[in-house]
Specification:
- The structure holds two protein chains of two kinds.
- By secondary structure, chain A is mostly beta strands.
- Chain A is globular.
- In chain A, strands 2, 4, 5, 6, 9, 10 and 11 form a seven-stranded mixed β-sheet that branches.
- In chain A, 36% of the residues are buried.
- Chain A contains no helices and eleven strands.
- By secondary structure, chain B is mainly β.
- Helices cover 0% and strands 56% of the residues of chain B.
- Chain B is built from no helices and eleven strands.
- In chain B, the strands form two sheets. In chain B, strands 2, 4, 5, 9, 10 and 11 form a six-stranded mixed β-sheet that branches.
- In chain B, strand 6 and strand 7 form a beta hairpin.
- The chains are: A mainly beta, B mainly beta.
């Protein structure tokens, strides 16, 4: 039981490049989330998916797109990376069996030059 | 939307002393208040949570108190140990199945041996 896994762990991009961050969970959770973490600002919600087939914007969605590929996987895409998107990205999942507690992955550290 | 403020941003205590971290929230509809611990290079991990129908909850050396009238909640760690050193985040959210959480900005706790 791996919980929430994220790939890659580290990534360096140049301004304007695109990339997709991958997230998968094996806890049979319905809901999945993408956050970004910046120094002194806590975690801010980018997008979330309440259930397979649905996605909704969070607090800071601009510059990102998401895909809920199936119940297990939720990806985050940066179409044209900007230096302001340099951050640590965390994926999380939650489900009724766990009282809707959010369980986090280990994070992806992204640098945009 | 919800706004969560967390204080202090840094806290140093001697091993064996107590540590208290405080948070306030703005949305009276929030009814779920988790606390997460984040160790260096890892994702946040839930350590305790409280729901609005409870005023206090305790788990060994960790306790959380909630004052819904004043819209504030606190984390108390007693008999601190060096392994308690980490960043702690409070959060507030609603009771929906896709529980959206708003996080505080974090407290860096250092336990000095």
């Amino acid at each position: 039981n791996a919980g929430v896994t994220q790939t890659p762990k580290f990534q360096v991009l140049k301004t304007g490049q695109s990339m997709t961050l991958q997230c998968a969970q094996d806890m049979n959770h319905n809901s999945m989330y993408w956050y970004r973490q910046d120094p002194g600002m806590g975690l801010r919600l980018i997008y979330y998916s309440a259930s397979e087939g649905t996605t909704d914007k969070g607090e800071v969605p601009n510059g990102y797109n998401v895909s809920r590929l199936n119940k297990r996987e939720f990806s985050l895409r940066l179409e044209s990376a900007a230096p302001s998107q340099t951050s640590v990205y965390f994926c999380a999942s939650s489900g009724p069996a766990g009282g809707h507690t959010q369980y986090f992955g280990p994070g992806t550290r992204l640098t945009v030059l | 939307g919800e706004n969560v403020e967390q204080h202090p941003s840094t806290l140093s205590v001697q091993e064996g002393d107590s540590a208290v971290i405080k948070c306030t929230y703005s949305d009276s509809a929030s009814n779920y208040f988790p606390w997460y611990k984040q160790e260096l290079g890892k994702g946040p991990q839930l350590i305790i949570d409280i729901r609005s129908n409870v005023g206090e909850k305790k788990d060994q050396r960790i306790a959380v108190t909630l004052n819904k009238t004043a819209k504030h909640f606190s984390l108390h760690i007693t008999e601190t140990q060096p392994e308690d050193s980490a960043v702690y985040f409070c959060a507030a959210g609603d009771s929906g199945s896709a529980r959206q959480l708003t996080f505080g900005s974090g407290t860096q706790l250092t336990v000095l041996p």
